[in-house]
Write a structure and sequence with these properties.
mainly alpha, 85% helix
């Protein structure tokens, strides 16, 4: 497992290095307003994309055989086609209303790219979890590097054309689809036959019923989580301006890149590892505690640097106009450090098939964040709003780890006395 984690992490490190290296350039090619509109587009994509496959992608590593896993993949593909079609209809009929509701007129034209972005998001989810199930970590690592290079290269090149945020969106879309082609080639090259065998309607229905909790509870939970993560983007836009959203987006982008790198790498390897332990009848608590502790220690240096020196770092590296973004980054680091600790907990709940627990947690978290942001916004201070949001995220993520621990304990067979 360590070899897989290192392979995946190597690709992720290279990808994040490319992304971070491009940020000082992009911060001078695009202004806060451009990043704000881009952030609103990305928020919509995240909210829809996480449920585009009705979370059947997450269930792909769970079946014992590849044939059954292919049938689960087919469930996700059918759901993705339906969701993408619905998004297209909404864009055709209501794109102006959506842009007006978010107080971002420049967003209306960009919404034409949303259905294709949702489709690309879902294709990647399905390919990603199939590759994870079958240990194709070299392919996953290569796909991350390809995506980062395509996104940054396209965004830099598109900055020369008029359109502002359009260059950021088209770069993201290009990176997504180039990555899909790379990953799909690796997946279909070896598994074309078994995947094709899964596309039988009666088998799709069987697996859809078997893993229906992912669709009925997991998809709403994922949407709630995504709304909870992106609610600052939407509410900062409502209460303040796209420029403030842009400062927040830049802070989140810089902070999340190094702090989430390791947790994302472990997420890919821990899901099949946790699944195998459960099938073998072993307790999940030891590995949950071990990896959570490791992540806490690894993330602490970055947290301290950003908390105390964020504004100075941003001013020097990104430019003077981004100094306020650096202050936001210091507070966001609190939340994202705790977020970095949560993958072992969320994976444990997934393997234990507890999407209802996660859904309830996400609903309560979303309500708490909305109340916190609304209350803080009346102070007319974006920074205070971000501080309150980050503190709420810190405590809730720590609470999620405790919930996962007790769920693991409850799932273990009682010892006879």
């Amino acid at each position: 497992m360590l070899k897989n984690a290192l392979t995946y992490m190597t690709g992720s490190v290279l990808a994040q290095a490319l992304t971070l290296a491009a940020i000082p350039v992009l911060s001078r090619l695009y202004g806060p307003d451009d990043f704000g509109v881009f952030g609103l587009f990305t928020a919509l994509l995240s909210i829809i994309g996480v449920a585009a496959c009705l979370r059947y992608a997450l269930a792909i590593p769970l079946p014992k055989t590849n044939r059954q896993a292919a049938q689960v993949l087919a469930c996700g593909a059918v759901a993705l086609a339906c969701v993408s079609a619905v998004v297209l209809l909404v864009v055709i009929m209501a794109r102006g209303m959506v842009a007006a509701a978010l107080d971002a007129p420049k967003l209306e034209t960009l919404l034409w790219l949303l259905p294709l972005s949702v489709l690309g998001y879902g294709v990647y989810e399905l390919s990603n979890y199939w590759a994870t199930r079958n240990g194709r970590f070299k392919a996953l690592a290569a796909s991350h590097v390809t995506r980062a290079a395509t996104v940054t290269g396209t965004q830099m090149a598109a900055a020369a054309a008029p359109g502002g945020a359009f260059g950021l969106v088209i770069g993201q879309l290009a990176g997504q689809w180039v990555t899909n082609l790379v990953l799909a080639w690796h997946v279909l090259h070896k598994d074309r036959g078994v995947i094709a065998s899964g596309f039988r309607w009666e088998r799709i229905c069987t697996q859809a019923r078997r893993y229906r909790t992912f669709a009925f509870h997991g998809a709403p939970q994922a949407v709630l989580n995504s709304v909870s993560q992106t609610i600052p983007v939407i509410m900062l836009g409502w209460f303040f301006s796209p420029a403030i959203v842009g400062l927040y987006i830049m802070a989140q982008r810089v902070v999340s890149a190094p702090m989430i790198l390791i947790s994302q790498s472990l997420r890919q390897v821990l899901l099949p590892h946790f699944s195998r332990r459960r099938h073998a009848g072993h307790s999940l608590r030891p590995v949950l505690l071990r990896y959570t502790t490791v992540l806490a220690v690894l993330g602490m240096p970055a947290l301290l640097v950003l908390l105390f020196f964020g504004d100075n770092v941003f001013s020097v590296v990104l430019g003077q106009e981004w100094e306020e973004s650096g202050r936001y980054a210091g507070w966001l680091a609190l939340w994202l450090w705790a977020e970095m600790l949560s993958p072992p907990a969320t994976i444990a709940l997934t393997v234990l098939e507890r999407p209802r627990v996660q859904m309830i947690y996400e609903a309560i978290l979303l309500i708490a964040r909305i109340m916190a942001l609304t209350t803080a916004a009346w102070t007319n201070s974006p920074e205070k709003s971000i501080i309150v949001f980050s503190v709420v995220g810190l405590f809730f993520n720590l609470g999620l780890i405790a919930i996962a621990f007790f769920q693991c304990l409850a799932s273990e067979p009682k010892k006879s006395t």
